[in-house]
Design brief:
single chain; 318 residues; 7-stranded antiparallel β-sheet
Length: 318
């Protein structure tokens, strides 16, 4: 099996980070346990361990890129203060529990809330990106009166149009670029709120209005076009007042500000993955023709100028 195609470039970039390696069972337990959680580990095939572990962080969100190099069985001992958000980049992950368990393959995400009594089986070719999320941060984002929250156990990253794939891509890109070091919790909070809204029963109490879903789908299909609020209203069969109120309630911005942010995200991706040969090419492709205002808006959103993104990706400043 190959890498999950939609995150192949980001995976390769993460792979350039320095790897910590281990070939013994005891050493692998210590290495992975120190980065994630204490666990029992057993090799399930006649193949040597070839553990590679890479770490990075995006502000307060720690990331681990992990492979074992052999099929293994893992029995976590405890992880009381965190839950794990795992992305299967290659191979497969089987999770066994009292409910019968489930299987996740390339392009699937897994949310493990409670590790007690579970056994995880990695295929020999499995590579996974793992993010450790503090339970206290989830409780703060959900609100003190939210009650118990159940997350989706597994789901496709590219399912629907909620943007989970784009968010994971953004996090991976930030990690490999070495940005947002330190304790800034903005991206961690963004990930938590996204998972609560789109991949838990907490978000079911306040579903995203159809007008927003239709409007954002229309935006993504026309990122390079000069669409207006009137165009959006006509496309989603709403009214300016209703659409604007829904965006303010569920996105915290106006419809046109959301469209601008999606266009900026598209420019960021084009500059970071080599699709665009210059800042001007990427900006004009997505409808930014006043390069001075564009550059300032870009810096506000990403904390750097567009030329910095281009140069970090190996391009030329132009």
């Amino acid at each position: 099996m190959g890498q999950f195609a939609l995150l192949k470039d980001e995976h390769r970039a993460l792979h350039r980070l320095r790897a910590m390696e281990e070939s013994t069972l005891a050493g692998a337990r210590r290495l992975v346990g120190g980065a994630l959680s204490d666990h029992d580990l057993a090799v399930m095939e006649d193949a040597p361990l070839a553990v590679e572990l890479r770490t990075a962080s995006v502000g307060a969100l720690p990331l681990v890129l992990l492979r074992y190099g052999a099929a293994v069985s893992i029995a976590p001992r405890r992880l009381p203060e965190h839950l794990l958000f795992q992305v299967v980049l290659r191979g497969r992950l089987e999770v066994e529990d009292d409910d019968g368990g489930f299987v996740a393959g390339e392009g699937d995400a897994v949310l493990l809330e409670n590790l007690a009594g579970r056994r995880l089986r990695w295929s020999g070719d499995s590579r996974q990106l793992i993010m450790r999320i503090p339970r206290a941060a989830v409780a703060r984002a959900a609100g003190t009166d939210s009650g118990p929250i159940r997350f989706d156990r597994t789901f496709r990253l590219d399912r629907g149009s909620c943007g989970t794939l784009e968010l994971v891509r953004y996090i991976m890109t930030q990690a490999t670029a070495g940005r947002m070091a330190g304790t800034d919790g903005a991206v961690l909070d963004l990930l938590i709120r996204h998972l609560l809204l789109h991949h838990s029963d907490h978000g079911a109490a306040a579903p995203l209005p159809a007008s927003i879903r239709r409007a954002e789908a229309h935006m993504r299909q026309n990122l390079g076009e000069a669409i207006t609020l009137t165009d959006l209203v006509e496309a989603v069969r709403s009214t300016p007042r209703t659409l604007s109120a829904n965006f303010q309630t569920f996105r915290g911005v106006s419809p046109m500000a959301r469209f601008r942010d999606l266009r900026l995200d598209a420019v960021y991706a084009a500059l970071g993955n080599g699709e665009a040969g210059s800042v001007t090419e990427a900006a004009t492709r997505y409808g930014f023709f006043h390069l001075g205002r564009f550059s300032q808006a870009y810096r506000l959103r990403f904390g750097e100028f567009p030329r910095d993104t281009l140069l970090a990706a190996g391009g030329r400043d132009a």
